[in-house]
Design a protein that fits this description.
heterodimer; A: about 110 residues; mainly beta; 6-stranded mixed sheet; 3-stranded antiparallel sheet; B: about 120 residues; 7-stranded mixed sheet; 4-stranded antiparallel sheet; 11 strands; globular
Amino acid sequence: QSALTQPASVSGSPGQSITISCTGTTSDVGGYNSVSWYQQHPDKAPKLIIYDVSNRPSGVSSRFSGSKSGNTASLTISGLQAEDEADYSCTSYRTSRTYVFGTGTKVIVL
Amino acid sequence: QVQLVQSGAELKEPGASVKVSCKASGYSFMNYYTHWVRQAPGQGLEWMGVIYPSGTETSYAQKFQGRVTMTRDTSATTVYLELSSLRSDDTAVYFCAREVPDSKYFDSWGQGILVTVSS
């Protein structure tokens, strides 16, 4: 049961846009529109920021957006801010009522 | 408001078992799924399994089959995770998380419990 593949780190300057990829297979990312993204600051619990590929929960900034193409989902953060510096993880529903997380990406605001 | 409050940190020896809890409040506990996710030091999140509202129906990650048991006490609005035959690589923070039925995402999380396995 391999984890979804994410880049270890992505960096950008304040105001820029960055994109984090999340690559899986046809058994998870490519087979379901059930990709969600979580933001996690150090020593904190994860926080849901995107669900069902591209939907934002109430209260989450519109600077966060999600998309999917084939077996790869993406999270874009536009207008990067210092507070966006955190770890980001994707997850996808996988066959047989299981889930799989991504390897995690550290976002660095330069 | 929705809250998932987890029990305190645990220190266990290799080969032992650990049972941690997650108490829910602020919502209709019986109607939601509860997942367990762990995070080893410096590592990514890892899905362990889910317990459904029936309290008897579960789904576990293949990696933990045979070592993990998830249960719930409806009257106490509490879900439990028990992991047996502990190894050093089970050292991690263990989170519980709520899923609205069939939504396939985790909208609320507990604060996490550090379980350390060491002799």
